[in-house]
Amino acid sequence: MAEGKVDPVHQFTIENLFGTDHWAIGGFNIAFTNSALWMLITAVVLVLFVGGGAKRQLVPGRWQMAVEGFVGFVDNLLKSNIGPAGRKYLPYIFSLFMFILFANLLGLLPLALVGLHPFTATSHFTVTGVLAVMSFAIVLIVGFSKHGLHFFSLFVPHGTPLPMVPIIFPIELISFMVRPFSLGLRLFVAMMAGHVLLEVLSGFVISGTNAGALTFGIAALPSFLLMIGICALELLVAGIQAYVFALLTCVYLNDAENLH
Amino acid sequence: MPQIAQLATTYSSQVFWLLVCFGLVFFVVGLGLLPKVTTTVDQRDKQIADDLAAAEAARAAADAEEEAWRVAANKQRADAQTLIATAKAEAAKATDAALAAASARVDETVAAAEARIGAARTAALGEIEGVAAEAAQDIVSRIAGLSVSAEQAHGAVKGVLAHG
């Protein structure tokens, strides 16, 4: 990499840590990478956050209030999308929402100021894809165990004229099968795009500042101001994408739970 | 793009560690800690609902109590009014009777007194006549040296008294 040049996608590079690159199970490499480290940090922070708030006090403190707020938020999400039957999915949806939210937010921390490099696990489709497949698998398991083969009637909307069924059915089936891809890719793309944008703009700031006062004024300074705004936007996106992932999982679960 | 460039070498590690970490989150947070939070919230909601219901019941009871008190108070007031009215009527009747008896007694006394006065006056008049007749007899005998009889003197006095 040349002096002053910034590679905007270098931040997504996975590196093996602690010399674990030879770890394997059944021939599959399971090296402990920076991605794994940040997923583990996410999990530990999440456990500490929820553990600190699960105090069972009748009059909650601030921390307990925050945790109960998140739980109530996800609970309402399930209630409004699935109804009272949605309560049993609360552990999964809450874990999913909080894990994605914390992973997104931890990846945005400005730890580079102290020499650490935060890694956003949700900017890898290998990670978001597994989460999406998990949600999709739960939808399939619930749908088929609850409704059996009748679950296929999901692909024939109410009031479809009989001659249209052969055409509607494949369309609905394809739109159904695309769900895990759209679910996983949406999160991955949103997180990667934001991080790339921030990296590109920071490249402008560095190159513009190095190239002299004029480029500092017309390129570096505006880019820096834009970065501040985009950082705020990224915080918003981190929350929204976690919400969208959880919301769509709820919507899909509703299809399986309350077949039309 | 490392996501694609490193896909072949890292996918198994990514999937494995995601499952480990998400599994940790799901079992510790989702199944372990979350029920504590939800039961706490549910308990609090239930307590609030119970307290509200209790307050509502207490308010209804207080309203009923107040209504009963008002009815009782109205009844007692009406009773008191009738009591007062009868007492007034009885008192008026008793007063009338007492007054009638008293006035009858007074009338009687007055009549008796008037009769006594009339008798006294008649007696006094008779005495005055006698005294005047004796005085006239005495005066005549001293001044005129005449001896007038008692009947004559009486007749003269009577005539003078009658003419005033």
What number is the mean pLDDT of chain B? 88
Unreliable stretches of chain A (pLDDT < 50, length at least 5) are: none
Order of helices and strands of chain B: HHH
Question: What is the topology, as strand order, of the major beta sheet of chain A?
Answer: 1-2
Assembly state (oligomeric): heterodimer
Q: Specify the overall morphology of chain A.
A: globular
Biggest sheet record of chain A: 2 strands, antiparallel
Structural class of chain B: mainly alpha
E-strand count of chain A: 2
Question: Can you lay out the helices and strands and say which pair or pack?
Answer:
The complex is a heterodimer of chains A (260) and B (164).
Chain A: E1 24-25, E2 28-29, H1 34-53, H2 62-81, H3 90-108, H4 125-147, H5 165-210, H6 213-257
Antiparallel strand pairs in A: 1-2
Chain B: H1 2-5, H2 7-143, H3 150-163
Attribute tags:
A: two-stranded antiparallel ribbon, 6 helices, B: 164 residues, mainly alpha, transmembrane (chain B), CF(0) (chain B), transport (chain B), hydrogen ion transport (chain B)
Q: Can you tell me about this structure?
A:
Chain A is mainly alpha-helical. Helices cover 67% and strands 2% of the residues of chain A. Chain A is built from six helices and two strands; from the N terminus they run E-E-H-H-H-H-H-H. A two-stranded antiparallel ribbon of chain A has the order 1-2. Chain B has three helices and no strands. Helix content of chain B is 95%, strand content 0%. Chain B starts with a helix and ends with a helix. The longest helix of chain B has 137 residues, at 7-143. Chain B is rod-shaped and about 190 Å long. Classes of the chains: A mainly alpha (260), B mainly alpha (164). Chain A binds chain B through residues 9-10, 12-14, 25, 28-33, 35-36, 39-40, 42-43, 46-47, 50-51, 53-58, 60, 64, 67-68, 71-72, 75, 90-92, 94-95, 98-99, 121, 123-127, 130-131, 134, 188, 192, and chain B through 1-3, 6-7, 9-22, 24-26, 28-31, 33-34, 36-41, 43-44, 47. Chain B: Its main location: membrane. Chain B: It comes from Novosphingobium cyanobacteriorum.
